[in-house]
Amino acid sequence: MSGGNRPEHLSRLSLNQETIRQWSLPELAEGCAAAGVPGVGLWRAPVRAYGVEAAARLMRTAGLSVTSLCRGGFFTAVEPAERAAALDDNRAAIDEAATLGTGTLVLVSGGLPPGSRDLPGTRARIADALGELSPYAAERGVRLAIEPLHPMYAADRCVVSTLAQALDLAERFPAERVGVVVDTYHLWWDDTVAAQIARAGAGGRIAAFQLADWITPLPAGVLLGRGQLGDGSIDLRWFRERVDAAGYDGPIEVEIFNPALWERDGAEVLAEVAERYASLVPVEPSPSPVPSGPPDPAG
Amino acid sequence: MSGGNRPEHLSRLSLNQETIRQWSLPELAEGCAAAGVPGVGLWRAPVRAYGVEAAARLMRTAGLSVTSLCRGGFFTAVEPAERAAALDDNRAAIDEAATLGTGTLVLVSGGLPPGSRDLPGTRARIADALGELSPYAAERGVRLAIEPLHPMYAADRCVVSTLAQALDLAERFPAERVGVVVDTYHLWWDDTVAAQIARAGAGGRIAAFQLADWITPLPAGVLLGRGQLGDGSIDLRWFRERVDAAGYDGPIEVEIFNPALWERDGAEVLAEVAERYASLVPVEPSPSPVPSGPPDPAG
To answer: Which of A49, A64, B32, B295 could make an SS bond with A59 (beta carbons 3.0 to 4.6 A apart)?
Structure first.
């Protein structure tokens, strides 16, 4: 890992690539390195299009840590053939995560199968899938990270809607195999989230911490309405303090899906992200004897 | 109350007027009476435009019970003048409910004030407002019914997002003064909702039970995307059984906001609502010695 001229206050910042999806992978690597941002969160589709090995080399050469791969999951199908295909696809995602050198595969579990109204049965199938996949992932040094999605996605994307539910699932497995994602966008409204962050931290379950702000009105389809840090309703500092207090010292990933950001110059967007991060999310204390940066997969 | 030729299986059905907003109040009264639907849920704006006393007479003459008035609330402002105006407006809503002969004023509590990120403070102001309003309402025979809204409305409409939160607020006051609304659209995703319905029933807190289905994709603004019963992801029968088991025997109100229903013939929509209700929501057992219809405010 290089990083000679990296600002200390960005030492835990990671840019999820969908935030600046107008960038190719080489642009992403170059842009993050230039801005002193030490981590990137990657998505499977662009990584596969570029080549998984090549993407891994690209990030390693730029001195960047891959803090997570998005995403596995979508394993709620009832039909055996569909279910088997989903598990195969998740094994491929685990392999890709291992190749990229990230220990974290984010899981968006999946919604109700078409025509189904059976939330408990759907959630049970997620637990079964985790049971099948977690040994495979562990052998490759990858932890499965269950991401609770906002309840507005419960029908069509993810029946895991709260951090409590994600932990109920994760805690069936060893902490080093299955963790959870704390994403401010999905969890900010929940009055039990402080207690659940503490629970997650006590169990060593926080696999990722992601930031985006909540802005209204929501767009049709509600997928691409996330706000730049500071533009919305979420007390990001409050979340950071809770996650800190829970003992989490890993990467802090900014993941914003918003077409207005995609229309702008990528470097300008990244500078804005870094500036908002520095002003809204408490920065690191002055250099301490204990290293607290993101794990360096390149060793 | 007339109702000689009312079908027994619709004896608890109430039509919230926004479901068929193309109807004027006289059309609503006539349409419900003709269809054998014994209850209506009304909204303040059309009632005030028609005249509160006149609307009360209209419904009484048609033999209809007014099962709820929507809505009070929106009392999360910080500014004293704004807050006082909101409380005054809520007193007016309580007066209107009393005039209409309904014992239930539905409260949509309000979102974060502009620029605020303080969820706990905002929720505390709701408790304060309930403290100020509930004696006034009780003197007029009106119960305040806190409606938890789906978490996607937490920023701009209602920081009370779960039935547990609504009960935490309601339980500060006597049950006959402050209750809660169980609305399937807002609560269906929540894996704790069965326990919270039981808690609400045990405390005599269920002031209203409302039905709508969850359909995707959500429209921009996410206000007008509710589905006709049976068109979406919600197990309505499951909800009805839980509410029954909790001891609730009041009206069952259908409240769907969907422009596609507003473009159709009102009588046709109401017939469809009644048909879906009869097939999807368990109907009443054969006539029992204990009356279980909606309360008749006309005495």
So the answer is: A64
